[in-house]
Amino acid sequence: MQGIPHKGRHRLYGYDSDWQTKPDEAAIVREMFQRRARGESTTSIARDLTTRGVKTVSGRDWTSGVLGETLTKHVYAGKVTFKGEVVADSIYPALVDLDTFNAAQSNLANDSAGTNTRRYLLSGILRCEHCLSPMKGNPSNQMYRCSTTYGGCGRLSVRITLADHWVTWAAMQRANLTPKRQSPTRDYDAEIAAADAAVLKIQADYRAGIYTLAEAKPLLDAERTKAREAAQSKARAAPRTNFATQKYLDYHRMNLAQQRAFISSHITGVVVGPAVSKGNQPFDPSRFLCEYPDGTKERLERPVDDPEW
Length: 309
What we know:
Layout: E1 2-3, H1 23-37, H2 42-51, H3 64-70, E2 79-82, E3 85-90, H4 98-109, H5 111-119, E4 126-128, E5 136-138, E6 143-145, E7 157-159, H6 160-174, H7 188-207, H8 213-237, H9 243-253, H10 256-266, E8 269-272, E9 288-291, E10 297-299
Parallel strand pairs: 1-3, 4-8
Antiparallel strand pairs: 2-3, 5-6, 6-7, 8-9, 9-10
């Protein structure tokens, strides 16, 4: 059976007044549902939308309350409700699939899960490989666990510090924010030294009477230009706090909600496998299977060509 959604005083965000999809707003709606389904708080999502200049239908900033209410609208999943009960399929296009909608409702209703996501970086982002249930931070032992309290199998756990480190590293890599080491193609110091030596020789030749002042000046200017250009090129090529490094520093100045938003924008989810390291062996990041917004997946690997690892 199909039905027509109730039309309020204002149009619903994502649709025009005739219930036709507005593509730019529909993309934001899908993003909101996906992020809430992954466990991100409504406060974090609303703050991010406000930072990006995304406004509500009335032209105001998004708030946690308005966003939370928006996410409860069944019409986004193609359903029509009456007195809180689903009574029919909407004749208008859905913006999100039913599974994503239901996952978002589960997180909205679960107050304890909401508290957990505000305390731990990857709560709701990590999922158990055995049962695919979200893993939650456990303060008693500082582990992310697949908890039977939240319907999981209880078979997997991973230390919070290790998971936070490796998933943050993966998000940085995905965003191409980690500074890369670049070998200089020119020997700038040698060029500067050669130009300085040429200046000294021209000055000595001028004093010896080999050059007149008119002859020496353009030669000196040319060598000094070479030295200045080499010094400027060296400064541009030298490691410094560039865009990538600044983004890395900015990340570590963010609050928890902003860090979760950053990670969620580059990694849609992480499936955690069982432990494979034994004894004193280093932690094996291949336990983490990262899922990216473009639909690709990647199992993390420990870098082998970096002395820091």
